[in-house]
């Protein structure tokens, strides 16, 4: 029962996130370009990082590893 509830919370959150972004594109607040794509991506990753407050989940672990990997790569390139 618990896993079924967690699945539907995830599906509902993704649906809400998608609906908000689609409506922003349709209204014209976001354009179809790389800058606005980065804004949507950053918002999604931020929400994924905050999902840890609900409980530890695979989406958080993926976002955490991506964040650490990008930070490490950036540090290596700057140091090089």
Which terms summarize this structure?
about 80 residues, mainly alpha, about 0% strand
Structural write-up:
There is one protein chain. The protein has helices at 2-27, 34-50, 58-79. It contains 3 helices and no strands. By secondary structure, it is mainly alpha-helical.
Layout of helices and strands, plus pairs?
Blueprint: H1 2-27, H2 34-50, H3 58-79
Helix pairs in contact: 2-3
Please outline the major beta sheet: none
Pattern of helices and strands: HHH
Mean pLDDT: 89
Amount of helix: over 70%
Strand content: under 5%
- Give start-end ranges of low-pLDDT stretches: none
| Oligomer type | single chain
Shape: flat
Rg from C-alpha positions? Answer: 16 Å
The SS-based structural class is mainly alpha
How many individual β-strands?
0
Number of helices: 3
Q: What is the end-to-end distance? A: 51 Å
In short:
Helix content is 81%, strand content 0%. It has helices spanning 2-27, 34-50, 58-79.
């Amino acid at each position: 029962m618990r896993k079924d509830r967690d699945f539907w919370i995830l599906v509902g959150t993704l649906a809400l996130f998608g609906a908000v972004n689609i409506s922003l594109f349709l209204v014209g607040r976001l354009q179809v370009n790389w800058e606005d794509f980065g804004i949507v991506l950053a918002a999604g990753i931020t929400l994924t990082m905050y999902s840890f407050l609900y409980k530890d989940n695979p989406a958080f672990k993926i976002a955490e590893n991506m964040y650490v990997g990008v930070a490490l790569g950036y540090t290596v390139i700057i140091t090089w």
